[in-house]
Each structure stands twice: as C-alpha cells, then as structure tokens.
Design goal:
- The chain is an alpha+beta fold and about 325 residues long.
- It has 2 domains: about 5-90, Phosphorylase Kinase, domain 1, CATH 3.30.200.20; about 125-320, Alpha-Beta Complex (Aminoglycoside 3'-phosphotransferase, Chain: A, domain 2), CATH 3.90.1200.
- The protein has helices spanning about 40-55, 95-110, 125-145, 150-155, 160-175, 215-225, 235-245, 250-265, 265-275, 280-305, 305-310, 320; strands at about 15, 25, 30-35, 65, 75, 80-85, 190, 210.
- Strand 1 and strand 2 (about 25) form a beta hairpin.
- Helix 3 packs antiparallel against helix 5, helix 5 (about 160-175) runs antiparallel to helix 8 (about 250-265) and helix 6 packs across helix 8.
- The longest helix is centred in the C-terminal third of the chain and has 24 residues, at about 280-305.
- The chain is globular and about 60 Å long.
- It starts with 14 loop residues before the first strand and ends with a helix.
- This is Spore coat protein YutH.
- It comes from Gracilibacillus dipsosauri.
Length: about 325
C-alpha cells in the first residue's frame, strides 16, 4: 500500500496495477492515480472544478483530484507533494476521433467559470513571440559554446527557416485577428496544452487541460497529416474534419486562426526539446525536416481543399507558399 492512502478518507484500493506514467490502483470501477505535483492549492482547486464539470458531462475518464482528511488536495509524503486522483476507464464503444473532440469542446463551452491559472485564450501572439525569442537566445548560446554542442549539428541549417516560419505565423495571426466574422464556437473552451488524440485514450490527465480556443486542438489533430505525402487525401484526415465540422463548424475567423497555428512549426520546436532532454537520434530529426517538404505542399493545398467555405472569406495566401 502506498503511504498516501493514509491521508484520505477512502477505502484503500485492493489492487495495484503496473501502469504508466503514474502509480495506479484499482477498486471495482474506480482507478486511482498518485501524481507528483508542484502547484499550490488554488491551482488544484481550479482543476478539481473543471474535472467535476467534465465528470458530470460523461467524461468520467478525466482524472479528478480528491481531497485528503485535511480537506486539501495537495498531500505531502516525506519531501514530495502528490495529488491523489480518480477516474473511470473510457468505455470501449465510443465516438470516433472527430466526434469525440467536438463533444469535448462543446462540453467545455458550457463550463460556467473563467479559469485563472490555465487560460491562454487570446494570448497566442505574446506566447509565440516569447517562444521565438527564447529559442533564438538558446540558439545563440549553443552557437557561442566551445567545443560546439552536438545539438548544433541538427540546428545549424534549419533554425533560421524555423524562425522565419514562426514569424510568418505571427504575421498571419495578425491577419486572423482582424477578421470580424466569427460565431459562438469561437468562444473559449476546455482544450489540451498539446493535443495528441487524448480524447480517445482510456484516461485524460487533468493537468494537460487548458482553457483556449478550440482551434488549438483542431490544429494539432491535423498537423501529423501535413507531414505525410498527400496527407490531405488521407481518409482519416477527411473523416476527422467531416465529423468535427458537422458538430462544430468553423467561422472565417476560426479558419484563419487554424492556418496561423499550422504555420507555426510547433512540431519542430517540440523536437528540439526532445533532442535536448533525451538521446533522440539525429536520424529522427533529419527525417522530420525532410517531411517538412510534404508539410509545405499540404499547406499550399489546404485552402483549396475547403474551397466552398472560402469563396467569400477573403482568405490570404502566403506568397512564398504559392511559388
């Protein structure tokens, strides 16, 4: 038995299972997760309110923090702080990816409060500019170091291209923010910090949820397809878009916002972080860079694929993508 259970007014779960990424216990239909935490009570309270809202709307596979015997969420064991969360495993028979994400966003639209600690809604420009500045500073640091850092072998030729693409994304975001044609689906909702199909997982980790425009998740659902040759022809992509749009149609503002976010090379920045923090091989990096050719080709065709929606939307294409 983990000592954390001594601090909670619940029956100790009868079975521990080997689960990642956190120690997991199960008792009948309830799964309990012991999650290391650095945040304070106020931030966890907000996560509790959000997870409670999701549980009440049939997303019972979202991990929900439990109060301990001191009526607190954060429990100290030794020198470490933990959350004890519970959830129920997602039902096997369920919606497909596009439908599930749309239903998740619709549930988030109904959330009755304005989160204070996890909201990034309307703040993309500042976040993107800061990201560019941080990575430029990092690049300069590596560039000056002697002997040359191994990461420079993968960054030297590609980094200026990444910065240029990111700056284009910021410029296009400025264009998107001038669009006045938007509707109710453009309000903030519950989304994911980095969506990778979590709605189809057995469990959804509450600490991965943020409060933002739904396009945040739509863009990350689409991004992997853009890295494939003729990725927009992929049946999974077309099915996802068809299902999502049937439930949550996009406004002209949302379409432009989507394109701006796809221009931002988040996948390349994320891979740099992985390269720094692990033994990720150079082959994986170079393969991703090579796939960027497909990414640009798919971006060129993106608007034409949805030609009906764009006839009267005053969409602007980037010149360098049309060359």
């Amino acid at each position: 038995m983990h000592p954390i259970f001594l601090h909670y007014p619940i029956s100790v779960p009868s079975k521990q299972i080997n689960a990642q990424p956190y120690p997991t216990y199960v008792d009948q239909n309830n799964y309990y997760f012991i999650i290391p935490i650095q945040q304070e009570e106020d931030a966890i309270w907000e996560k509790y309110v959000i997870s409670n809202h999701l549980h009440q709307n049939n997303f019972t596979n979202v991990t929900q923090p439990i109060r301990n015997i001191h009526n607190q969420f954060v429990t100290t064991v030794g020198k470490e702080k933990f959350l004890l969360c519970f959830a129920r495993k997602k039902q096997t028979l369920d919606s497909s990816p596009g439908q599930k994400l749309a239903h998740f966003h619709q549930t988030g639209f109904q959330f009755p409060y304005q989160p204070q600690t996890i909201s990034t809604y309307g703040n993309w420009k500042n976040l993107w500019v800061n990201k560019i500045d941080q990575y430029e500073a990092l690049y300069k640091t590596y560039y000056k170091q002697q002997p040359t850092q191994p990461i420079m072998r993968v960054l030297a030729d590609v980094f200026p291209y990444m910065v240029g693409l990111a700056e284009n994304a910021v410029q296009y975001l400025n264009i998107a923010e001038e669009e006045k044609n938007y509707h109710m689906n453009d309000q903030a909702t519950l989304t994911f910090s980095r969506y990778s199909n979590q709605c189809m997982d057995d469990f959804i980790w509450i600490h991965e949820i943020v409060y933002d425009h739904p396009i945040r998740d739509v863009a990350e659902s689409i991004r992997p397809f853009l890295l494939k040759e003729r990725g927009l022809d992929d049946k999974e992509f077309q099915q996802f878009m068809g299902e999502y749009l049937a439930i949550c149609p996009l406004s002209p503002f949302a379409w432009k916002l989507l394109y701006a976010r796809l221009l931002l090379p988040i996948h390349l920045f994320d891979k740099i972080d992985q390269y720094r923090d692990s033994d990720l091989g150079e082959k994986a990096w170079h393969r991703l860079v090579e796939d960027q050719v497909y990414y640009e080709q798919n971006l060129k065709q993106f608007f034409s694929l949805f030609a009906v929606e764009f006839r009267d939307m005053d969409i602007i294409q980037l010149d360098w993508l049309l060359d």
